[in-house]
Amino acid sequence: MKEKEREEIEKWIEGDESGAEMLSRVSSVRPFVFPPPLHRVPLRVGNVLELVGPSPSAKTQILINAAITSVLPKPYGGLDHLVLFLDLDCRFDITRFSQLLIHRITQHGTDSYDQALYHLCMARFLYVRCYDSFEFLHTLRTLHCRLEKEKEVQGVGVHVLMIDSIGAFHWMDRASMFLSQRETSKKKLFLQTVSEAVVQNIKKLLQVHPMLIMATKSVIFGNRYSTASNEVKGNMEERCSKNMTRNHQNFQYREYMPSVWQSFVTHRILVHSSDEHPGTTNHQNSSAYLLEWLLPKLSFPDRIVVKDAGVFVQS
């Protein structure tokens, strides 16, 4: 620990803090103010927000919107922070991110965009791709050095860590449990062990680098009123009922992530397709979804529309 940091901690413990210093410290941990559709519940560093939904359901688009808000300067409606994006799905579209960033910049001025500002924001978006759980765990264990280096170079720290998608390697790790006994050259990955290591490494990272965690998770929905194969599957559904999560529109999904991850999540959003059309709009390329807060539970959903210009909430 640096000498200056040690002195500041000792001053804080002793209560030797002026009003201006107190206001500066409190303002640094204020809730994140994201634009819709993440505007219903205040989010703080240390929170773990999980976006749950089928593929596709605009989960990554919501992350992109939040990432752009984070990297933009405050005069442009941003938070002036760095964002670290861990791509576990390996399908991230950087062109889409770039287009939406340019659109947000041009909203605050002329039709042309500030190239210097564009390059600044792109440099604040830190992207890492992982192809399996080994790479994911190795990345988490080595993030501290990278975050420290980026903070020194860019003058601001990472306040948002995004994971897309947290369950990407679940089924590969599950399959590794059934490897034959002859394959002993590689250490077998077990679901509980992997999840415990992921959560433990993120917790250690948060102790040094306080961040908001935002993770997507793909699930498969089913309708509990579907009559197909109900008699055959009735007993199995009853046994699995404890692992099912239902919303008020009778959709359900099977929770497959281990309990260590489920208990780590502090906020959860459910996103699924809307039966209605997006409505009258000049944008032909648009899709409609329903977004519901499950944790904390809100009694009303938001209807969101994904357009060429981003994600919007329809009233």
Automatic annotation (TrEMBL):
A cellular component term, taken from the record's GO annotations: Rad51B-Rad51C-Rad51D-XRCC2 complex
Gene3D superfamilies in alphabetical order: P-loop containing nucleotide triphosphate hydrolases
GO biological process: double-strand break repair via homologous recombination
Domain RecA family profile residue range list: 23-315
Taxonomic superkingdom: Eukaryota
GO molecular function list: ATP binding; ATP-dependent DNA damage sensor activity; DNA binding
Protein name per UniProt: RecA family profile 1 domain-containing protein
The species this protein was found in: Vigna angularis var. angularis
Primary gene name: Vigan.06G237700
